[in-house]
Design goal:
The protein has seven helices and no strands. The chain has 106 residues and is mostly helical.
Length: 106
Amino acid sequence: MNNTNNPIGVFQQEAPEVSKAFDALIEALKSTPGLDAKTKQLLYIGIKAAHGDAAAIYYHVAMAKKMGATRDEIKDAILITLTVCGLTGVAACLPVALRVYDETVQ
């Protein structure tokens, strides 16, 4: 299987033990009781937007919508990064987020 266009696939193929440990960490974080799953996704979207990571936004917006996040919640999670990180993350991620949200079937 050719994973050159799939960074996660490359990670899994080239470092399977580390990838498994990373997956276990993600599962452990999902199970913490302090925040519900939708809120965790919205936080993740904000953090990734702050980094300008549009690829992560692409995947996590669809997950957040399926967990009940509204378009306005997605938008606010990205816009809140503006005062801390500037326009770069918002400009890179907001169009992607809104497009994915609008195209994702709930």
